[in-house]
Amino acid sequence: MHRQIITYCSFILAALAFTGCKDYLDINADPYAPQTAPPDYYLPQIIYAMAEGEMFDSRYVGSYTQNWVNALPDYFYERHGSSYTSGTQKFRNNYWSIGSDLNEMVTQAQENNQPVYEGIAKVIRAWSWQVTTDHHGELPYQQAWDNTRTSFEYDSQEFIYGQIQILCDEGIAVLQTIPEDSASDFAAADYLYEGDISRWIKFAYAIKARNAGHLTNKSTFKPDDVISFVDQSFQSIEDNPSVFFIGESSANSSFMGPIRGNFNTSYASKLVISYLDGTYFAGVQDPRLPLMFNADSVGIYHGLVPTEGDTAEVGQTLYGKYIFTDSKPYPLMTYPEIQFIKAEAAFIKGDLNMAYTAFLEGVRSHMLYAGVASAAIADFVATALPANASELTLSQIMTQKYIALYTNNETWSDLRRYDYSSDIFMGFTLPDTLALENNGKPAERWYPRQYSEVDWNSEALEKIGGLQPDFHTKPMWFTEPN
Q1: Would you say residue 316 lies in a domain?
Q2: Which domain holds residue 408?
Q3: Phi–psi pair at 361, nearest 5 degrees
Q4: Model's pTM, two decimal places?
Q5: In a domain, 285, yes or no
Q6: For residue 67, what is the DSSP state?
């Protein structure tokens, strides 16, 4: 079932081609063609769009986080440059491919008395707002889908963060009223969880955990709340919300795979290789290294330095390993991430035993996800990681989280929360030369989308400084102290 998602989405896109603009085209409506669709027609495309935005934008965010390095030297995004035209897929999808379709799905669900879709819509919308505000900062929220308007005022990130918690709570409340055995009517359209309502509820709690876990720099940070949200979320890697692909052509393959060709000139960074080759963890090579990256012909794993390019021509393709295949599912969030969120919160709280337990669970579960054998996991934990809670450091937690989140844009949130610190992320250093317009500052946000905001909503964008050439260096609310 999962493996049909891309083909099914293509059909749905064709079927719904005119739905979004029906208010303007009613004069030409064909009385013999449906103008709306049942909610199960919308859901697969919405789920695909969730992964699409993350994968598309990861090409650029991965340069900031030093997940990979471009073959060409002096690469603009490795110098923390930003753009109104690239890296804005999440922005588009939040309002259109996800947002507008969710509006239609909810309308049809209400008309057909299918509340399960309303509950799921709340969870998806919360997730979409979370990843989009973490990428861009302030966003039009309250006026977002007001079709009577031609301009849309920006709401603060603080407000949006609060709304995300509310959306999750509302989604959970709806889904908790629906008997599990009544969910079969939407299972075929549910490409994340095949109609398993309990896992959608866990997904909502995972979003709440990420949202609350971002506020570590605030005096209002509540580690107990974060820990509670984590404990009600994913229980294993089987709960990971992952989007599946067939992998037979460019139309049905993962954006991360060789058929799509989006990482042809991207190679592993020196940083990520150093996290796995024993440089920082007791001199022990991590068994994930050969499962996540390709060695050269004599078995050497090369990592490139940002902005220096592959001048020595030693870079090895990312394809064929980890999720860089045509059919590997793309995880929107993961159980390992949630465990590291718990470890960080417990560490800040001062409960080192809880932090240590969650830290080990995060490492073990990601190794399992990467395909490491049980014996190798046990050996690595015993020889490379701190032996007890008293030896655990925040740097170990966040560096291991970096590994577990490899390819995920969430790493950028972590780096910004800790000011790109090498004290927290072992060995991380910003490039010596940043983009000229940065005025010596690293990127803190991404510019919003050119077409909708600069071209059509510029007055509202200007009010938040969005037309300034260094707007992308303006710190986010979630990273700042109160």
Answers
A1: no
A2: 329-429
A3: -65, -35
A4: 0.93
A5: no
A6: S
